[in-house]
TrEMBL record:
Family membership: Belongs to the ATPase delta chain family.
Source superkingdom: Eukaryota
Location of this chain's protein in the cell: Membrane
UniProt key word Disulfide bond: no
GO terms, molecular function: proton-transporting ATP synthase activity, rotational mechanism
Gene that this polypeptide is encoded by: atpD
PANTHER family: ATP SYNTHASE DELTA CHAIN
GO cellular component: membrane
Keyword Plastid (UniProt): yes
Keyword terms, alphabetized: ATP synthesis, Hydrogen ion transport, Ion transport, Membrane, Plastid, Transport
UniProt organism field: Cryptomonas curvata
Protein name listed in UniProt: ATP synthase CF1 subunit delta
Record-linked NCBIfam families: ATP_synt_delta
């Protein structure tokens, strides 16, 4: 997210969560995930919402038709306000920021994991258990991606902390160590 997007997304995300604080945080997170997956899953919807040549009324009609029965009425009203204010083009940034804040409020830690091979469900549960102890979070949400270049092992990112147990990372560390001892 660019710094301009963050500056725009932050107040809207905070306002949305404040507006939604009357309801269940779980339903707010579900609504945000629904909107996020719908927008990221449809290039046409993303293009339409970010096109400055399409008027706000058309965008509002599209938002209503796509999300009317899928999300809470407060969330829908918030999306319509974004259309009115000309900020719907920043929807992905706003949703990402709102999800980040909602997860934090619900004591859910989002952890990014890059693995050389896909995890089994037992491995995921074991990792979640260890991460709960490490972070003190009540719940852990894993974002797992695979990267065969790691050769073996995985990399875990919790906030700004990175734990690299991959073979590629160990080789880099060994190379760095050997390179510095030769000099």
């Amino acid at each position: 997210m660019s710094s301009k997007n963050v500056k725009i997304a932050q107040p809207y995300a905070e306002a949305f969560l404040e507006l939604s604080s009357k309801g269940s945080l779980e339903s707010v997170i579900n609504d945000l995930n629904c909107v996020s997956s719908s927008v990221s899953g449809s290039a046409e919807l993303k293009t339409l919402l970010s096109n400055p040549l399409i008027n706000s009324q058309t965008k509002k009609n599209v938002v209503r038709s796509v999300f009317n029965d899928k999300i809470d009425s407060n969330t829908l009203k918030f999306l319509l306000v974004l259309c009115d204010r000309g900020r719907i083009s920043y929807l992905e940034s706003i949703i990402d920021k709102a999800l980040e804040l909602a997860y934090k409020a619900a004591s859910i830690e989002t952890v990014k994991v890059i693995s050389s091979v896909p995890f089994t469900s037992a491995q995921q549960e074991a990792l979640i258990s260890k991460l709960k102890k490490m972070t003190g979070a009540e719940q852990i949400r894993l974002e797992i991606t695979t990267n065969s270049n790691l050769i073996g092992g995985f990399i875990v990112q919790v906030g700004s902390k990175i734990i690299d147990t991959s073979i590629q990372g160990q080789l880099k560390q060994l190379s760095s160590y050997l390179g510095s001892s030769v000099l």
